[in-house]
Amino acid sequence: MAAASVPVIVGPTAIGKTAVALALAKYWPLEVVSADSRQVYRRLDVATGKATARERARVPHHGLDLVEPGTRHSAGRFGREASRWIEEIRARGAMPVVVGGTGLYVRALAEGLFVEPELDPARRRALDAWLARLEGIDLVRWAGRLDAAFAGGGRQRASRAVEVALLTGRPLSHWQSAARDHGAITPWYVVLTAPRAVLHQRIERRVAEMMQRGLIEETAAVLSEGHAPGAPGLDGVGTREAVEYLQGLRPRETVAAAIVTRTRQYAKRQETWFRHQITGERLTLDASRSPDAMAAEIAAAWGARQGG
Questions:
Q1: φ and ψ at 236, to 5 degrees?
Q2: Containing structural domain, residue 238
Q3: Mean pLDDT of all residues in 115-144
Q4: Whether pLDDT at 160 is above 70
Protein backbone atom coordinates (compact mmCIF):
# COMPACT_ATOMS: atom_id res chain seq x y z
CA MET A 1 0.00 0.00 0.00
CA ALA A 2 1.35 3.42 -0.94
CA ALA A 3 2.18 5.78 1.89
CA ALA A 4 -0.34 8.55 2.44
CA SER A 5 0.29 11.99 0.93
CA VAL A 6 1.39 14.70 3.33
CA PRO A 7 2.11 18.39 2.61
CA VAL A 8 5.79 19.16 3.24
CA ILE A 9 6.67 22.87 3.41
CA VAL A 10 10.36 23.44 2.71
CA GLY A 11 12.65 26.34 1.96
CA PRO A 12 15.63 28.24 3.37
CA THR A 13 15.82 29.65 6.86
CA ALA A 14 13.87 32.88 7.48
CA ILE A 15 11.73 32.39 4.34
CA GLY A 16 8.55 32.21 6.45
CA LYS A 17 7.69 28.48 6.61
CA THR A 18 6.22 28.59 10.11
CA ALA A 19 4.06 31.61 9.29
CA VAL A 20 2.60 29.81 6.27
CA ALA A 21 1.87 26.69 8.31
CA LEU A 22 0.08 28.75 10.95
CA ALA A 23 -1.96 30.50 8.24
CA LEU A 24 -3.03 27.08 6.92
CA ALA A 25 -4.80 26.45 10.22
CA LYS A 26 -7.62 28.58 8.77
CA TYR A 27 -8.30 25.77 6.29
CA TRP A 28 -7.31 22.57 8.07
CA PRO A 29 -7.33 21.21 11.64
CA LEU A 30 -3.58 20.75 11.31
CA GLU A 31 -0.63 19.75 13.49
CA VAL A 32 2.92 20.64 12.50
CA VAL A 33 5.76 18.12 12.36
CA SER A 34 8.99 20.13 12.58
CA ALA A 35 11.76 18.77 10.34
CA ASP A 36 14.46 21.00 11.82
CA SER A 37 17.62 19.50 13.29
CA ARG A 38 18.22 22.51 15.56
CA GLN A 39 14.77 22.79 17.10
CA VAL A 40 15.11 19.38 18.75
CA TYR A 41 17.32 20.95 21.45
CA ARG A 42 15.77 22.10 24.69
CA ARG A 43 16.19 25.65 26.02
CA LEU A 44 17.57 26.96 22.73
CA ASP A 45 14.34 28.64 21.66
CA VAL A 46 15.67 32.00 20.47
CA ALA A 47 18.65 30.54 18.63
CA THR A 48 16.61 28.00 16.67
CA GLY A 49 13.55 30.11 15.85
CA LYS A 50 10.99 27.79 17.42
CA ALA A 51 7.30 28.59 17.27
CA THR A 52 6.28 30.60 20.33
CA ALA A 53 4.23 29.19 23.19
CA ARG A 54 1.21 31.10 21.89
CA GLU A 55 1.67 29.69 18.38
CA ARG A 56 2.03 26.16 19.74
CA ALA A 57 -1.13 26.58 21.79
CA ARG A 58 -2.94 27.51 18.59
CA VAL A 59 -1.38 24.80 16.40
CA PRO A 60 0.23 21.73 18.04
CA HIS A 61 3.88 21.15 17.08
CA HIS A 62 5.89 17.94 17.18
CA GLY A 63 9.67 17.59 16.97
CA LEU A 64 10.59 20.41 19.36
CA ASP A 65 12.54 20.11 22.63
CA LEU A 66 13.36 16.42 22.26
CA VAL A 67 16.92 16.21 23.61
CA GLU A 68 19.45 18.01 25.80
CA PRO A 69 21.99 20.32 24.09
CA GLY A 70 24.77 17.83 24.79
CA THR A 71 23.02 14.95 23.02
CA ARG A 72 23.33 14.23 19.31
CA HIS A 73 20.16 13.66 17.33
CA SER A 74 19.97 11.88 13.97
CA ALA A 75 17.89 12.02 10.82
CA GLY A 76 17.15 8.32 11.21
CA ARG A 77 15.71 8.85 14.67
CA PHE A 78 13.64 11.76 13.38
CA GLY A 79 12.24 9.65 10.56
CA ARG A 80 11.10 6.93 12.95
CA GLU A 81 9.59 9.33 15.47
CA ALA A 82 7.94 11.54 12.86
CA SER A 83 6.28 8.49 11.30
CA ARG A 84 4.66 7.76 14.64
CA TRP A 85 3.60 11.38 15.16
CA ILE A 86 1.93 11.44 11.75
CA GLU A 87 0.00 8.25 12.49
CA GLU A 88 -1.16 9.70 15.81
CA ILE A 89 -2.17 13.01 14.20
CA ARG A 90 -4.27 11.19 11.62
CA ALA A 91 -5.87 9.06 14.35
CA ARG A 92 -7.03 12.27 16.01
CA GLY A 93 -8.69 13.35 12.79
CA ALA A 94 -6.18 16.16 12.21
CA MET A 95 -4.01 17.03 9.21
CA PRO A 96 -0.22 16.48 9.52
CA VAL A 97 1.93 19.12 7.83
CA VAL A 98 5.71 18.70 7.78
CA VAL A 99 7.63 21.99 8.03
CA GLY A 100 11.38 22.36 7.95
CA GLY A 101 14.62 23.27 6.40
CA THR A 102 16.82 20.29 7.28
CA GLY A 103 17.11 18.31 4.06
CA LEU A 104 18.24 15.04 5.63
CA TYR A 105 15.33 15.08 8.07
CA VAL A 106 12.89 15.58 5.21
CA ARG A 107 14.57 12.80 3.24
CA ALA A 108 14.48 10.42 6.21
CA LEU A 109 10.71 10.79 6.41
CA ALA A 110 9.93 10.92 2.69
CA GLU A 111 12.43 8.35 1.37
CA GLY A 112 13.73 6.49 4.38
CA LEU A 113 17.29 6.08 5.65
CA PHE A 114 19.37 3.09 6.60
CA VAL A 115 18.49 0.89 9.55
CA GLU A 116 21.13 1.73 12.14
CA PRO A 117 23.21 -1.25 13.29
CA GLU A 118 23.56 -1.95 16.99
CA LEU A 119 26.29 0.18 18.59
CA ASP A 120 27.88 -0.87 21.87
CA PRO A 121 26.88 1.79 24.46
CA ALA A 122 30.15 1.71 26.43
CA ARG A 123 32.33 2.00 23.33
CA ARG A 124 30.04 4.74 22.02
CA ARG A 125 30.43 6.82 25.19
CA ALA A 126 34.20 6.45 25.12
CA LEU A 127 34.32 7.41 21.45
CA ASP A 128 32.08 10.43 22.02
CA ALA A 129 34.47 11.66 24.74
CA TRP A 130 37.39 11.40 22.30
CA LEU A 131 35.49 13.11 19.49
CA ALA A 132 34.56 16.01 21.77
CA ARG A 133 38.27 16.78 22.25
CA LEU A 134 39.02 16.98 18.51
CA GLU A 135 39.19 20.28 16.68
CA GLY A 136 36.55 20.62 13.98
CA ILE A 137 39.05 20.42 11.11
CA ASP A 138 40.57 17.22 12.53
CA LEU A 139 37.14 15.69 12.98
CA VAL A 140 36.24 16.36 9.35
CA ARG A 141 39.58 14.93 8.25
CA TRP A 142 38.92 11.72 10.19
CA ALA A 143 35.46 11.45 8.64
CA GLY A 144 36.93 11.73 5.16
CA ARG A 145 39.55 9.09 5.87
CA LEU A 146 37.03 6.62 7.26
CA ASP A 147 34.37 7.18 4.61
CA ALA A 148 35.47 8.10 1.10
CA ALA A 149 31.90 9.14 0.32
CA PHE A 150 31.73 11.66 3.18
CA ALA A 151 30.44 14.84 1.55
CA GLY A 152 31.43 17.26 4.29
CA GLY A 153 29.30 19.16 6.75
CA GLY A 154 29.40 20.35 10.33
CA ARG A 155 30.78 18.80 13.45
CA GLN A 156 27.71 16.68 14.13
CA ARG A 157 27.68 15.10 10.68
CA ALA A 158 31.41 14.38 10.83
CA SER A 159 31.08 12.84 14.30
CA ARG A 160 28.32 10.60 13.03
CA ALA A 161 30.46 9.37 10.12
CA VAL A 162 33.42 8.60 12.39
CA GLU A 163 31.24 6.90 15.00
CA VAL A 164 29.51 4.54 12.58
CA ALA A 165 32.73 3.65 10.75
CA LEU A 166 34.71 2.87 13.89
CA LEU A 167 31.95 1.05 15.79
CA THR A 168 30.61 -1.06 12.92
CA GLY A 169 33.72 -1.56 10.79
CA ARG A 170 31.94 -0.19 7.73
CA PRO A 171 31.49 3.42 6.55
CA LEU A 172 28.20 5.24 6.94
CA SER A 173 27.77 5.34 3.15
CA HIS A 174 27.75 1.51 3.09
CA TRP A 175 24.88 1.30 5.54
CA GLN A 176 22.98 4.03 3.72
CA SER A 177 23.18 2.24 0.39
CA ALA A 178 22.79 -1.34 1.61
CA ALA A 179 19.91 -1.22 4.08
CA ARG A 180 17.30 1.46 3.47
CA ASP A 181 13.86 1.74 4.98
CA HIS A 182 10.89 2.77 2.86
CA GLY A 183 9.61 6.30 3.22
CA ALA A 184 6.74 6.73 5.67
CA ILE A 185 4.89 9.30 3.56
CA THR A 186 4.34 10.36 -0.01
CA PRO A 187 5.49 13.99 0.11
CA TRP A 188 3.63 16.79 -1.60
CA TYR A 189 6.27 19.48 -1.50
CA VAL A 190 5.49 23.16 -1.11
CA VAL A 191 8.76 24.92 -1.92
CA LEU A 192 9.00 28.52 -0.73
CA THR A 193 11.35 30.80 -2.63
CA ALA A 194 12.04 34.53 -2.69
CA PRO A 195 14.36 36.92 -4.50
CA ARG A 196 17.79 37.05 -2.88
CA ALA A 197 17.32 40.65 -1.68
CA VAL A 198 14.05 39.77 0.06
CA LEU A 199 15.55 36.72 1.77
CA HIS A 200 18.60 38.68 2.92
CA GLN A 201 16.37 41.37 4.39
CA ARG A 202 14.39 38.75 6.31
CA ILE A 203 17.58 37.16 7.60
CA GLU A 204 18.83 40.52 8.88
CA ARG A 205 15.49 41.20 10.58
CA ARG A 206 15.44 37.75 12.20
CA VAL A 207 18.98 38.12 13.52
CA ALA A 208 18.17 41.54 14.99
CA GLU A 209 15.16 40.01 16.74
CA MET A 210 17.27 37.13 18.05
CA MET A 211 19.73 39.57 19.61
CA GLN A 212 16.90 41.61 21.15
CA ARG A 213 15.25 38.50 22.59
CA GLY A 214 18.43 37.43 24.37
CA LEU A 215 20.36 35.03 22.14
CA ILE A 216 23.62 35.58 24.00
CA GLU A 217 21.99 35.25 27.41
CA GLU A 218 20.21 32.05 26.34
CA THR A 219 23.49 30.56 25.11
CA ALA A 220 25.29 31.58 28.30
CA ALA A 221 22.61 29.87 30.39
CA VAL A 222 23.05 26.61 28.46
CA LEU A 223 26.84 26.77 28.80
CA SER A 224 26.45 27.36 32.55
CA GLU A 225 24.75 23.97 32.81
CA GLY A 226 28.10 22.37 32.00
CA HIS A 227 27.65 21.65 28.31
CA ALA A 228 30.82 21.86 26.22
CA PRO A 229 31.16 24.81 23.81
CA GLY A 230 31.23 22.30 20.95
CA ALA A 231 28.17 20.37 22.13
CA PRO A 232 25.78 19.34 19.32
CA GLY A 233 23.13 21.82 20.41
CA LEU A 234 25.61 24.70 20.41
CA ASP A 235 27.13 23.98 17.01
CA GLY A 236 24.50 25.71 14.87
CA VAL A 237 24.55 29.12 13.26
CA GLY A 238 23.67 31.69 15.90
CA THR A 239 24.72 29.73 18.96
CA ARG A 240 28.19 29.20 17.50
CA GLU A 241 28.80 32.95 17.19
CA ALA A 242 27.38 33.59 20.65
CA VAL A 243 29.72 30.95 22.07
CA GLU A 244 32.65 32.62 20.31
CA TYR A 245 31.81 35.89 22.05
CA LEU A 246 31.31 34.23 25.44
CA GLN A 247 34.71 32.56 25.09
CA GLY A 248 36.36 35.87 24.28
CA LEU A 249 37.02 34.95 20.65
CA ARG A 250 35.11 37.87 19.12
CA PRO A 251 33.78 41.27 20.25
CA ARG A 252 30.08 41.43 21.10
CA GLU A 253 29.43 44.05 18.41
CA THR A 254 30.50 41.57 15.69
CA VAL A 255 28.14 38.77 16.70
CA ALA A 256 25.06 39.89 14.75
CA ALA A 257 26.99 40.57 11.53
CA ALA A 258 28.72 37.18 11.73
CA ILE A 259 25.37 35.42 12.21
CA VAL A 260 23.89 37.25 9.22
CA THR A 261 26.81 36.25 6.98
CA ARG A 262 26.75 32.59 8.01
CA THR A 263 22.96 32.42 7.81
CA ARG A 264 23.06 33.72 4.24
CA GLN A 265 25.59 31.03 3.37
CA TYR A 266 23.47 28.36 5.04
CA ALA A 267 20.32 29.56 3.27
CA LYS A 268 22.08 29.31 -0.08
CA ARG A 269 23.07 25.70 0.66
CA GLN A 270 19.50 24.91 1.64
CA GLU A 271 18.14 26.39 -1.58
CA THR A 272 20.59 24.32 -3.60
CA TRP A 273 19.69 21.15 -1.69
CA PHE A 274 15.95 21.54 -2.14
CA ARG A 275 16.38 22.44 -5.80
CA HIS A 276 18.35 19.31 -6.64
CA GLN A 277 17.71 16.68 -3.97
CA ILE A 278 13.97 16.44 -3.45
CA THR A 279 11.94 14.38 -5.88
CA GLY A 280 8.24 14.10 -6.43
CA GLU A 281 5.29 16.41 -6.86
CA ARG A 282 5.85 20.00 -5.83
CA LEU A 283 4.22 23.43 -5.71
CA THR A 284 6.69 26.31 -5.85
CA LEU A 285 5.55 29.61 -4.37
CA ASP A 286 6.98 33.12 -4.27
CA ALA A 287 7.29 33.79 -0.53
CA SER A 288 7.46 37.54 -1.07
CA ARG A 289 3.67 37.43 -0.66
CA SER A 290 1.81 37.29 2.62
CA PRO A 291 1.45 33.99 4.52
CA ASP A 292 -2.33 34.24 4.14
CA ALA A 293 -2.08 34.51 0.35
CA MET A 294 0.24 31.52 0.14
CA ALA A 295 -1.92 29.48 2.51
CA ALA A 296 -4.97 30.12 0.33
CA GLU A 297 -3.08 28.91 -2.75
CA ILE A 298 -1.77 25.83 -0.96
CA ALA A 299 -5.22 24.89 0.33
CA ALA A 300 -6.75 25.33 -3.14
CA ALA A 301 -4.01 23.24 -4.80
CA TRP A 302 -4.33 20.50 -2.20
CA GLY A 303 -8.09 20.42 -2.63
CA ALA A 304 -7.72 20.18 -6.40
CA ARG A 305 -5.26 17.25 -6.19
CA GLN A 306 -7.57 15.48 -3.73
CA GLY A 307 -10.42 15.83 -6.22
CA GLY A 308 -12.49 18.30 -4.29
A1: -90, 165
A2: 5-113+181-305
A3: 87
A4: yes
The model's pLDDT over 142-152, given as tens digits with 9 standing for 90+, comes to 999 999 988 77
CB 211 within 8 A of CB 31: no
Interior/surface letters 123-161, b for 16+ CB within 10 angstroms, e for the rest? eeeebeeebbebeeeebbebbbebbeebeeebbbbbbbb
Q: How far apart are the first and last CA of the chain?
A: 23
pLDDT at 88 over 90: yes
Model pLDDT for residues 46-73, shown as the tens digit of each residue: 999 999 999 999 999 999 999 999 999 9
Q: What is the CATH number of the domain that holds 148?
A: 1.10.20
Total domains in the chain come to 2
State the Cα angle at 32 between 188 and 288, rounded to 5°: 65
Query: Which of 137, 161, 178 finishes a domain?
Result: 178
Cα separation, 92 vs 293, whole angstroms: 28
Contacts of 76 (CB under 8 A, 6+ apart): 108, 113, 114, 115, 116
C-alpha 86/C-alpha 96 separation (Å) is 6
Nearest to 82 by CA among 188, 183, 192, 233: 183
User: Are 178 and 114 within 8 A, CB to CB?
Assistant: yes
The whole model's pTM is what? 0.81
Largest CA distance in the chain: 59
Same domain membership, residue 170 and residue 301: no
Instruction: Say whether both 86 and 141 belong to one domain.
Output: no
DSSP code, position 185? S
- How many CB atoms within 10 Å of residue 117? 12
